[in-house]
Design brief:
Chain B: GO terms for molecular function: GTP binding; GTPase activity. The structure holds 2 protein chains of 2 kinds. Chain A is of the alpha/beta class. Chain A contains 10 helices and 11 strands. Chain A is globular and about 60 Å long. Chain B is elongated. The two termini of chain B are 15 Å apart. Classes of the chains: A alpha/beta, B alpha/beta. The structure holds guanosine-5'-triphosphate (GTP), guanosine-5'-diphosphate and magnesium ion (MG) (2 copies).
């Protein structure tokens, strides 16, 4: 057995920006509503999460009150910024102190460049629900411009997402963050493509079991060209199934699988390996899902092998 | 027997301002998130919702500022033809004014038609602690009943419900309220009992697909958790389907549909489309492959039975 590799993720941003909320929703099955119970984080809260079996995400949720931030950037800076794989910087889009937020962001990048120059940087423009729907894109683009300008002097590439705990956007961002740490995604992806061809399905989507984050997907050409499918479907599926799972737990059991047969869509959602769930979408009007279910069972071993491939990048 | 198929059944939604009437309408009939109701503006004109399924219902919100004691209030016009009056009391607020008002509403409605069902919602109970909730309920019921006796309306048909838009209690209450108005309820219940017995199913509901109000269920008691999961599965199957197709999952598409959701303890929820915008959703606790086929087959039989009732 390969020892799981550990990846340090830093979660930083002003107090109240929503860091602990998003962590609790993605990794601890909170609902958006539950996050009102969270108190301010004191210092750093560490959590360790296994992802696809052989990677351990070591998440540092850094409490954002001024005095803590001051410590991270001075006395504790090597402790905080050393060996970081990913920095996730959360901006509260409704913040009244934008210049100060920018200043702190720059100081963080400065330290990151010194201690972990190869880290990836994600910026989440959070609480987007507070911005009027028709203004969101503009607000996002304008803020990203400002951030790029501030980060200009550093060699990091910024990847930005607009997020809110009140919709599915959180899943898109976190799937991108976590998958950026996995070395076997492209292998899983091509295996899914083979599966889609062999089973002649419209689409196959692979999710991690506990977080329900998207791992990879393969879409057939004829579905790609028909623009009927929702472009945000993957994060929406994560959101829908995760809240349904919460609901099922009230019956003191867990969700095993789903099969849908309707005019719009024929699909099955089944456990694949011990860490993944696979959703396959069949051509409309397919009458039988048994065939694809046996194909799923047959490919289980292959996917298990791929998943457990060493994750350490050379 | 009178055929009620074409007649609209009028349901009035009454109560003082900010009691939660519009919130209930929005959450149930327009899919609004409960939290979004904070931004609802005060209703000034009577506003109504239609629910066309096993019968045609019109739910009409009477704005809270309408004063029923004002001589200009045309009580005969408002109450005439109403099957039900739903009265919303804000349990988080000082409710004495509401109690006075509801008694006036009942006394006027009762004068016009003794058969009106008065359904009192003790609403917003999410804000009350467990103990306080029971005390409030007891207090409200006691006071209203005392007052009704005083005005000689002690035999008015009054039912109380504890509700909140933040959980299933509001849909549960509306389901119970609307079921009283489904003329064929007893035939449907019998049909459902037969379906459950023949199929070996624990619980079966007939839901109206878009509001997720259940219009009928078999005669075994309703377990809130089972109801909730069945109702959530309707959302899951509609939402997932909606990601891949356009034919909107509205009350009118009575096309073929059969979805299942399996659980680790061996139980399964099955969902299938019936007629008139209804869904049959049932829970089987012990699952075998044959069971699902049996459910699918017997659901077709049930649908045919329903078609006969509504022919
Ligand atoms: N409107 C809105 N509120 C949010 C969102 N995300 C989080 N919140 C709320 O913001 C408040 C603070 O969130 P936390 O997650 O505790 O903030 P934090 O960044 O961990 O704060 P510190 O621990 O002090 O650094 C909570 O009441 C959340 O419910 C969002 O996307 N939209
Ligand atoms: N806590 C809580 N608040 C509610 C509930 N239902 C409605 N409200 C709130 O009550 C307020 C008034 O609601 P509205 O529907 O406009 O009242 P109306 O005047 O009776 O139509 C809104 O701020 C709602 O968010 C509930 O079940 N619980
Ligand atoms: Mg926190
Ligand atoms: Mg109103």
């Amino acid at each position: 057995m390969v020892a799981p590799s550990r990846k340090k993720l830093l979660l930083i941003g002003r107090s109240g920006s929503g860091k602990s909320s998003m962590r609790s929703i993605i990794f601890s099955n909170y609902t958006a509503f539950d996050t009102h119970r969270l108190g301010a984080t004191i210092d750093v809260e560490h959590s360790q999460l296994r992802f696809l079996g052989n990677v351990t995400l070591n998440l540092w949720d850094c409490g954002g009150q001024n005095s803590f931030i001051e410590n991270y950037l001075t006395t504790q800076r090597d402790h905080i910024f050393n060996l970081v794989e990913v920095l996730i910087y959360v901006f509260d889009i409704g913040s009244q102190e934008v210049p100060k937020d920018m200043e702190t962001f720059k100081r963080c990048l400065d330290n990151l460049q010194e201690f972990s120059p190869n880290a990836k940087v994600f910026v989440l423009l959070h609480k987007m629900d507070l911005v009027r729907v028709d203004r969101r894109e503009q607000v996002f683009n304008a803020t990203m411009m400002t951030l790029h300008a501030h980060a200009n002097e550093f060699k990091f590439q910024l990847t930005g997402f607009a997020t809110s705990i009140w919709d599915e956007s959180l899943y898109k961002a976190w799937s991108a963050i976590v998958c950026s740490l996995m070395s076997n995604i492209s292998a899983l992806q091509s295996e899914l493509e083979t599966f889609a061809k062999v089973s002649s399905v419209q689409e196959v989507v692979l999710f991690e079991k506990t977080t329900f984050l998207l791992v990879a997907h393969a879409t057939s050409d004829d579905m790609d060209s028909s623009s009927q499918a929702d472009p945000k479907r993957f994060e929406k599926i994560s959101n829908i199934i995760k809240s349904y799972r919460q609901s099922v737990s009230k019956l003191r059991t867990q969700l095993h699988s789903i099969s849908l047969l309707s005019n719009n869509c024929v699909a099955v959602l089944e456990p694949l390996t011990s860490n993944t769930i696979i959703m396959t979408v069949l051509p409309k009007h397919s009458a039988d899902t048994n065939m694809v279910i046996s194909n799923i069972k047959a490919s289980k071993t292959r996917f298990e092998e791929l998943e457990s491939k060493s994750n350490d990048l050379p | 027997m009178i055929s009620q198929g074409t007649r609209e059944q009028k349901i009035l939604l009454m109560g003082l301002r900010r009691g939660g009437k519009s919130s209930i309408r929005q959450v149930i009939f327009h899919g609004m998130q409960p939290i979004e109701t904070l931004y609802l503006e005060s209703t000034t004109k009577p506003t109504s919702e239609k629910l066309s399924s096993l019968a045609n219902f019109v739910i009409e919100e009477i704005p809270g500022q309408v004063d029923v004691t004002n001589p200009e209030f045309e009580s005969s016009k408002v109450f005439k033809g109403a099957s039900t009056v739903i009265y919303v009391i804000d349990s988080q607020d000082e409710y004495l004014l509401s109690l006075q008002n509801v008694v006036q509403v009942i006394s006027q409605g009762y004068k016009i038609d003794r058969n009106i069902h008065f359904e009192i919602l003790i609403h917003k109970v999410d804000g009350l602690s467990e103990d306080f909730r029971l005390d409030t309920k007891r207090d409200i019921i006691q006071r209203i009943n005392d007052d009704l006796v005083d005005i000689g309306a002690y035999d008015a048909d009054v039912t109380f419900h504890m509700t909140s838009i933040f959980d299933q209690s509001i849909v549960e209450a509306l389901s119970r309220i609307i079921q009283k108005l489904v003329p064929e309820l007893s035939s449907l219940t019998q049909l459902l009992d037969m379906f459950c017995m023949r199929t070996g199913v624990e619980k079966a509901f007939v839901f109206e697909a878009s509001s997720k109000i259940y219009l009928a269920t078999d005669s075994s008691p309703v377990d809130a958790e089972i109801y909730q999961v069945c109702s959530d599965f309707i959302d899951v199957s509609a939402d997932l389907g909606g990601l891949y197709g356009t034919s909107a999952n509205t009350g009118n598409s009575d096309g073929r549909e059969f979805s299942t959701s399996r659980f680790n303890n061996g139980s399964v929820i099955c969902l299938t489309r019936l007629i008139k915008g209804c869904l049959l959703v049932c829970l089987c606790t012990s699952e075998t492959d044959n069971k699902i086929t049996l459910v699918e087959f017997n659901a077709d039989v049930f649908r045919e039975g329903m078609e006969k009732i509504y022919a």
